[in-house]
């Protein structure tokens, strides 16, 4: 009898270990997180709609989280669709056990988008007048971007977003006598600063290279530095 119990315990422990390894390495596809992910996105803006299929979920036992990922997601706002490459989210295991679904972080990766479309989306997070002006100055160009959002224990967005990506073939109209086009650069944006690297552009058909440009927000002022 003792041997049977011993073998049963070994079998259960081995099965549990294999299940943990499978969930950690391969994961599963499920639609059980869809509604919760959509509801969290709507906290950014109630009119946002998210079209997603099954979610790929992997277990992160070290951080007591489930890493969920969607592929080929569409973000819809006021009948305007933005194509996303993926949405990754960290879901607290404790919140699932307590039946109180909670996302810690969301990582949104876009496909190649028109710059004006993405700026419209960013303005939903922070309707800053500078973004409104930027939206009207930019006339053309494409970008790929990654957006990171964090949530507190109550599911509210923490004001420490991060946006990284690059711009290709941009065009800006500032004044009629200045023709800015062929704009390419890498960018990193957060709540306090804007950082741009490898800026290449054409100003009135003259090529210009700016290795680095940084803009820092301090109180109500902006400090600019660069090369």
Short description:
This protein has about 230 residues and is an alpha+beta fold. It has helices at about 1-25, 35-40, 95, 115-125, 130-135; strands at about 30, 50, 55-60, 65-75, 80-90, 105-110, 115, 140-150, 155-170, 180-190, 195-205, 205-220, 220-225. Strand 3 and strand 4 form a beta hairpin.
Describe this structure in words.
The protein is an alpha+beta fold and 227 residues long. Helices cover 26% and strands 53% of the residues. Strands 1, 2, 3, 4, 5, 6, 7, 8, 9, 10, 11, 12 and 13 form a 13-stranded antiparallel β-sheet that branches. α4 (115-125) runs antiparallel to α5 (129-137).
Give the strand tally: 13
Share of β-strand residues: over 45%
Query: Structural class, from secondary structure content?
Result: alpha+beta
Mean pLDDT: 78
Percent helix: 25-40%
The Rg value, from CA coordinates, equals 23 Å
First-last Cα distance: 78 Å
């Amino acid at each position: 009898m003792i041997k049977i119990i011993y073998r049963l315990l070994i079998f259960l422990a081995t099965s549990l270990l294999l299940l943990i390894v499978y969930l950690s390495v391969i994961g599963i596809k499920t639609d059980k997180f869809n509604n919760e992910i959509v509801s969290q996105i709507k906290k950014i803006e109630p009119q946002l709609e998210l079209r997603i299929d099954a979610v790929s979920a992997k277990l992160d036992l070290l951080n007591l989280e489930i890493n969920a990922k969607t592929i080929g997601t569409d973000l819809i706002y006021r009948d305007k669709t933005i194509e996303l490459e993926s949405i990754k989210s960290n879901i607290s295991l404790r919140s699932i056990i307590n039946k109180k679904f909670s996302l810690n972080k969301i990582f949104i990766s876009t496909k190649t988008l028109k710059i004006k479309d993405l700026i419209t989306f960013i303005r939903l997070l922070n309707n800053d007048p500078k973004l409104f002006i930027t939206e009207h100055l930019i006339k053309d160009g494409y970008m790929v971007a990654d957006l990171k959002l964090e949530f507190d224990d109550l599911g509210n967005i923490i004001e420490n977003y991060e946006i990284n990506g690059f711009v290709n073939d941009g065009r800006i109209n500032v004044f009629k006598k200045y023709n800015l086009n062929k704009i390419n650069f890498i960018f990193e944006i957060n709540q306090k600063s804007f950082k741009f690297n490898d800026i290449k552009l054409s100003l009135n058909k003259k090529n210009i290279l700016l290795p680095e440009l940084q803009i820092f927000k301090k109180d109500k002022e902006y400090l600019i530095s660069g090369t």
